[in-house]
Amino acid sequence: MPISEFRKNKLLYVFNVFFDVNQSGTIEKKDFELAIQKICQNRGWAPGNPKNQQTHDTLLKVWDGLRQRADANHDGQVSREEWCSMWEEYAKDPSQALEWQQRYMNFIFDLEDTSDDGRIDEEEFTSVCTTYGIPESDCRTAFNKLSGQKKEVSREEFTELWKQYFASDDQSAPGNFIFGKNSFN
Fold first, then answer.
1. How many CB atoms sit inside 10 A of residue 74's CB?
2. Own/partner pairs for 92-99, CB < 8 Å, 24+ apart?
3. 184 pLDDT band (50/70/90 cuts)?
4. pTM of the full predicted structure?
5. How far apart (Å, rounded) are the C-alpha atoms in residues 125 and 49?
6. Which residues pair with residue 154 across a beta bridge?
7. Beta carbons within 8 Å of 163's beta carbon, 6+ residues apart
């Protein structure tokens, strides 16, 4: 069964907003280098800061894993089609996430958990998502939907929401909102 339009829209949203940083239409190593620079600059993590190096190391490992898995034609880039195909494979068994997918999920959780208390609250979520151009009101609405109106989301809850985002066709699933967007129609 081909990927639904709803899931495809979710996948391409993440592709376009969080991965294709230079908006070239493909994901390549340069996008990760730009993302590292942007994240570290937004957080005030100058070169030499351990968080800067950790971000650099983590995201380049994510790129290597993504490239190895999704770059079917070995051109050093991941196209939209390759991206969707990879996540379609993931959707068949989200409990068997690849190492890079786990690493990226944990990176996003840690990035949003600015207080480093093992939980994401609405303020933390909003402060990160707005740096990607998502309006603050959309971020707050999305957080309330993903959290089920709770004040915080734990890493364990986030893991389940992540699986929903990338695997579910249920348009009302709370996981649909983990990247701050409220609609994919």
1. 8
2. 94/163, 94/166, 94/167, 95/163, 98/65, 98/69, 99/65
3. confident
4. 0.92
5. 23
6. 119
7. 94, 95, 175
The owner of tokens 């993903």 is: 146
Amino acid at 2: P
- How is residue 133 written in tokens? 């151009």
> pLDDT (tens digit, 9 = 90+) per residue, 126-151?
999 999 999 999 999 999 999 999 99
| Inter-residue contact 146 to 174 (CB < 8 Å) | yes
Which residues have a Cβ under 8 Å from the Cβ of 33 and sit 6 or more positions away? none
Q: Which two tokens stand for residue 21?
A: 């940083």
Give the C-alpha separation, 70 to 76, whole Å.
Answer: 10
- For residue 162, what are its two tokens? 């992540």
DSSP string over 90-131: HHH-GGG--HHHHHHHHHHHHHH-TT-SSEEEHHHHHHHHGG
Per-residue model confidence (pLDDT) at position 153: 98
